[in-house]
Fold each of these.
Amino acid sequence: MSSPARGVAADLSHISTKAKVTGYLPADDGLKAAFTGADVIVIPAGIPRKPGMTHNDLDLFNINAGIIRDLIIGIALYAPSAFILVISNPVNSTVPIAAEVLKKHGVFDPKKLFGVTTLDVVRSETFTASVVGKSDPSVFKVPVIGGHSGDTIVPLLSLSEPKVELSDSDRAALVHRIQFGGDEVVQAKEGKGSATLSMAHAGFHFAGIVENTFVYLSGVPGGGAVKDIVAGLDYFSVPIELGCPSGAVKAMNILPQVSEYENGLLEVAYTGLAANIKKGVDFIVGAPEAK
Ligand SMILES: NC(=O)C1=CN([C@@H]2O[C@H](COP(=O)(O)OP(=O)(O)OC[C@H]3O[C@@H](n4cnc5c(N)ncnc54)[C@H](O)[C@@H]3O)[C@@H](O)[C@H]2O)C=CC1
Ligand SMILES: O=C([O-])CC(=O)C(=O)O
């Protein structure tokens, strides 16, 4: 890229609300002004979970699905080549929603659409370090694959570097803490948001060369081999090598290295993910206003 990347981090709530009230507004000047010329667009817009809400909550889905759809329409029209990082939950469904809207507009590039799952890696490394009594989370590198909610998040402790030895019960407790770490934050904030600041940290991380992210597998080089292993799921989070200007350069297929225990976690994740992905796709497919 010859000029510095232009990103959009504006609060677009007024625009999206307007789009929601009046229907699809192809000539919306706000969306046009916000997105035109953007190279990288990060979307954290939407409601956060309240204590007790799961990522499968219907209110969370219905409100955020509409917000994502409206914003992605704006991107399809005014910044079709931008890198899109979707933070808004439920990521397992909002990324498929984004993909379907982009497809309807004929501008879907799977190498440039990413669901932000970085926090799962941050948690897996931080909590693994704390379980073995280290205060510095950067000591461990622990891959995480799958999706971004509860038991669709699959930490691969068997591939930790350096190796970590845990009893079965310590391992189960650690896996649970990584999978449900978001709940701790949502509860601690008592209805006033979720891991907002950690999200900023995740965004910063994303500037790296290899990043964990939820992608459309068939559109990313190397993704087909992953898809063959993950029960044919269209979307999955694995470490992705990133490049500029093309985006996702390669999906790292670490699936053949997982342990038997982790294969058990994956089987559970596949079921949840298949339902979450279908929910996102169904939200757009057949919906005339998204055309
Ligand atoms: N993928 C990830 O790792 C993470 C995802 N999240 C998700 O990010 C989203 C935001 O979470 P928080 O920052 O904690 O919530 P928050 O309530 O602090 O911030 C939400 C922001 O979205 C804006 N917004 C609300 N309705 C909008 C609309 N119709 N159009 C555009 N913008 C709108 C609000 O003005 C506000 O600035 C949630 O869906 C949450 O679940 C949060 C943390 C981590
Ligand atoms: O769990 C939530 O609601 C927010 C989130 O995605 C996370 O903290 O990883």
Note: Residues 11-13, 16-17, 44-49, 64, 67, 87-89, 91, 116, 119, 148, 193-196, 199, 202 surround NAI (ligand 1) (CB under 6 Å).
Amino acid sequence: MSLLTLENVTLRFGGLTAVDALSFAVEPGEVFAIVGPNGAGKSTVFNLISRFYDPVSGAIHLESEDLLAHKASDVANLGIARTFQNIELFEHATVLQNLLVGRHRHRRSTMLSELLFLPSVRRAEIENREKVEEIIDFLDLQPYRDKMIAGLPYGVRKVVEVARALATDPRLLLLDEPASGLSVEETSDMRWWIEDIRRQMGITVLMVEHDMGLVSGVSDRVLAMADGAKLALGTPSEVQSHPAVIEAYLGRAS
Ligand SMILES: Nc1ncnc2c1ncn2[C@@H]1O[C@H](COP(=O)(O)OP(=O)(O)OP(=O)(O)O)[C@@H](O)[C@H]1O
């Protein structure tokens, strides 16, 4: 069974059809990229999956779970985590604190049990700390562990955002332009992080990305969109050589 399925999903902003009868499925364990010119509808697709927007028609499933029956606040509990195009972290908190916030959904305690600091609360706290330390090590964030986000270089913040998403223990990780604003070297590091997240953590990755080097290097399959609709779907090389894709990019450039 596919991990994520979109069937005939349409979303309009007033008269503009931002996503137009779009269907695709993401298989467990794959890295799946969505590419397309500015305004193609890529971020809107992420916002639909995250339940920020309600489609006017169509269906979205996480395995057999009807995502449209859930609110945005349920999405993390279902196992979907995301990063944002414009990094969204708590600026005046440390890396460690930001990651612990990411663990929030794993807190099953009540306020009373927390006040009494019951053994179950203590155990959960230790488990959360261990998980967060594991992610800090995994993404080489040890040197920044106790640093405030506000003072960190942009490239490090991008990695912290990925770390915070991983702290929720997702089955599906949505990365919104993971390479935007990164240097060539940082983009290459990001490629290896994505590869490791898939291979070592077994997490399925769905990303929106403009950097075709990163997309080709790390993706199993690519969906190319324009004007809210599917232009092509296949391996990176199939999609890059697809006439409709070439036309869409050259058309916008000219
Ligand atoms: N909240 C909104 N209200 C109105 N129109 C919107 C809204 N969000 C997006 N749009 C429009 O919907 C279309 C798709 O936008 P979207 O941001 O999904 O594109 P994108 O492919 O992610 O572009 P980019 O690569 O520039 O981020 C665009 O025409 C955009 O102007």
Note: The longest helix spans residues 119-138.
